[in-house]
Write a structure and sequence with these properties.
The protein has about 450 residues and is an alpha/beta fold. The protein is built from 17 helices and 12 strands. The strands form 2 sheets. The chain has a 7-stranded mixed beta sheet with strand order 9-8-7-6-10-11-12, with helices on both faces. Strands 1-2-4-3-5 form a 5-stranded mixed beta sheet, sandwiched between helices. Helix 2 (about 20-40) packs across helix 17 (about 425-445), helix 15 crosses helix 16 and helix 16 (about 395-415) crosses helix 17 (about 425-445). The longest helix has 25 residues, at about 395-415. The chain is globular. Bound molecules: NADPH dihydro-nicotinamide-adenine-dinucleotide phosphate. NADPH dihydro-nicotinamide-adenine-dinucleotide phosphate binds near residues 165, 237, 319 and 346.
Length: about 450
């Protein structure tokens, strides 16, 4: 039996109730076959067996009191998956769907993503099944304070540096950081995504979306093409989606959709800067639902319960959540003439959908490469915190662009070297793997 199959069987047997985690491991391990076959040291040192087992998994009770004076209990998590190349780094997700499987898949993906950024960051992820959506500011603050009261003993600027993800934006990061600072009696760069006046970095809010668009531009350039005039669909309406739209507009593309969990907005005329400003206000300040957009801009259609993938486009930017593009949706995109998919979200395409993209020669940028701009800029925030300086907007954006260009080049060339030219799935996984695996070889069996 091939070692990849053996390890995969082990993962399935040990984690039977974790479908998302198994899905992520399967995708990565299958892509690693060429490098595992080419270098026996990885097998001899048990690298794969160690790679699929988190270094640590913390689960804890998060009790808090709601506005009706009732006690509520949520579950908190932090996974430290791999620290071979740096302290654990990865976001916190607050969403009712959060469970161990989802956080382990995200933390596992983070290993390869963080490695690709070229910065010294290991991989972690955490969060809670808490839903900030229908809560008051006071409730969100009390929850965050309770969550951090436990989390603070497991993290630190040289141990584990959380950031945001779904449901964790500037408001939540503020409350979490405040409680850490209070309990630990220290002001350090323990979290990223901080406010600009208290240790944050310029471009960090924009970085994931901007990066996904830069990555798309790099992929198009390999075919002598650009984003100018392309019709684009975007899913989600949160942090990643908003700045994906902003950068696409700057690059001369036309964006015709955004969405949230209630449905999709189809704006055939295109979302311009004024409409984007409204969307940001709606989502970040009023915390409203996406159908409001169609009430304000009456030529736009609200498609209740639908995802954007039925809308004809040249380029698609899934920026909401995992498994949001089914095989059927992938086929629809291809049939409608889509030539590029750049994943702002993590694992938004189901495995059969990925197959369809690859078979049809779509420029397909998997999340761990295409959305690495977010964590890369978090790495830049950490660097600025360490030297206690702040770089300008232009400086951070230039570094982000360079990092994305290098990630693209590394993925492209690695795929080509292993005989899979144009396959960014193979390129990203192998390139991300080699650096971490070699560090693990150097550091012995730990
Ligand atoms: P936000 O919470 O800011 O926005 C998430 C958006 O996706 C919302 O519009 C939300 O709609 C929608 N959404 C979430 N869950 C679902 C669901 N189950 N079904 C349909 N729609 C859903 O999160 P981010 O923009 O930060 O994250 C989006 C994606 O990008 C995630 O996959 C995340 O892991 C990934 N990512 C984020 C990074 C970052 O820097 N923030 C970095 C790298 C990747 P609703 O409000 O209705 O729930």
């Amino acid at each position: 039996m091939h070692v990849i199959e053996k390890v995969l069987n082990y993962v399935k047997e040990k984690n039977p109730h974790e479908p998302e985690f198994i899905q992520a491991v399967e995708e990565v391990l299958e892509a690693l076959v060429p490098v595992i076959d080419a270098d026996k040291r990885y097998v001899e040192a048990g690298i794969l067996e160690r790679l699929v087992e988190p270094e640590r998994q913390i689960m804890f009770r998060v009790p808090w009191v709601n506005d009706k004076n009732q006690v509520v209990v949520n579950r908190g998590y932090r996974i430290g998956f791999n620290s071979a190349i740096g302290p654990y780094k990865g976001g916190l997700r607050f969403h009712p769907s959060v469970n161990l499987s989802i956080l382990k898949f995200l933390a596992f993906e983070q290993i390869f993503k963080n490695s690709l950024t070229t910065l010294p960051m290991g991989a972690g992820k955490g969060g809670s099944d808490f839903d900030p959506k229908d809560k008051s500011d006071g409730e969100v603050m009390r929850f965050c304070q309770s969550f951090m009261t436990e989390l603070q003993r497991h993290i630190g600027p040289d141990t584990d540096i959380p950031a945001g993800d779904i449901g964790v934006g500037p408001r939540e990061i503020g409350y979490l950081f405040g409680q850490y600072r209070r309990i630990r009696n220290e002001f350090t760069g323990v979290m990223t995504g901080k406010g600009i006046d208290w240790g944050g970095s310029y471009i960090r809010p924009e970085a994931t979306g901007f990066g996904a668009v830069y990555f798309a531009a790099e992929m198009l350039a390999t075919r002598g093409d650009s984003l100018e005039g392309k019709v684009c669909t975007v899913s989600g309406a949160g942090n990643v989606a908003q700045f994906t739209v902003e950068k696409l507009l700057q690059m001369g593309a036309k964006v015709v959709t955004v969405s949230d969990s209630s449905g999709t907005i189809y704006d055939e005329d295109g979302i311009d800067e004024e409409k984007l400003a409204y969307l940001m206000e709606l989502k970040n300040v009023a915390r409203g639902r996406i159908n409001e957009y169609a009430k304000k801009f009456t030529k736009a259609k609200f498609m209740e319960g639908e995802k954007p993938w039925g809308v004809r486009c040249d380029c698609a930017f899934p920026s909401a959540t995992q498994n949001e593009i089914s095989a059927k949706a992938a086929q629809t995109l291809v049939d409608n003439g889509c030539i590029l998919v750049s994943e702002g979200a993590n694992m938004p395409t189901e495995p059969d959908g990925v197959e369809i993209f690859l078979k049809n020669n779509i420029l397909y940028g998997p999340g761990k490469a295409a959305n690495a701009g977010g964590v890369a800029t978090s790495g830049l925030e950490m660097a600025q915190n360490s030297i206690r300086l702040m770089w300008t907007i232009e400086e951070v954006d230039a570094r982000l662009k360079t990092i994305i260009r290098d990630i693209h080049k590394n993925c492209y060339e690695t795929a080509e070297r292993f005989g899979y030219k144009g396959n960014y799935v193979v390129g990203a996984n192998i390139a991300g793997f080699i650096k971490v695996a070699d560090a693990m070889l150097d550091q012995g069996v730990i």
